[in-house]
Amino acid sequence: MSRHSPVRIGLLAALLAALASLSACHVVGGGVRVEAEAAYPPPPAHRPPPPPHAPAYGRRRAEVYHYYYYPEVSIYFDTRRGMYFYLSGGRWISSVTLPRHLRGRLSGRVELELETPEPWREYHRHRKAYPPGYFKKRKKRKKHHRREHED
Question: Does the reported pTM lie above 0.85?
């Protein structure tokens, strides 16, 4: 035997121990899945409800998206993603820039908070609440209201 044989035996023992520890692993889709040997206790039959300040079990708070809605031209702007959504030929288009014919027409915006990344899904509700001319009508109402109170 050579003088390295105790080192070789130690390395071989370490290699065998490592291989033995991986015997419960299976390669699945390019990843490693480890099977647990210890059985976990079953969940309790009845869980108490969460406290009022905590969300319900299994439910996540919906993500909120912030938009500017321009009623005069029916355009949405996603403030976080920097994207516009507008109607063109009966279809909703998403883009980081607007077509030339729409660029100068953005005036009078409404701020919306929605739980969807697709604001046009609620377009009919928004168009009813904020029809074209919404801001012009509001200005007229305010002027009329001031005149009544000045007398």
Answer: no
Rounded average pLDDT over 106-117: 92
- CA proximity to 119, closest of 90, 89, 92: 92
The mean predicted confidence, pLDDT, of the chain is: 77
User: Coil, helix or strand for 53?
Assistant: coil
Residues 6+ apart with CB under 8 A from 94: 83, 84, 85
Q: Which residues 6+ apart lie within 8 Å of 123 measured at CB? A: 74
What are the sequence ranges of the domains in the chain? Answer: 65-150
Length of the chain: 151
CB 90 within 8 A of CB 137: no
Q: What is the DSSP letter of 133?
A: T
Ranking 5-9, 52-56, 86-90, 102-106 by mean pLDDT, the lowest is 52-56
Q: Nearest-CA neighbor of 110 among 95, 97, 123?
A: 123
CA within 13 Å, CB half, 28: 7
First vs last Cα of the chain: how many Å apart?
116
How many Cα atoms are found within 13 Å in the side-chain-facing hemisphere of 104?
A: 2
CB 112 within 8 A of CB 125: no
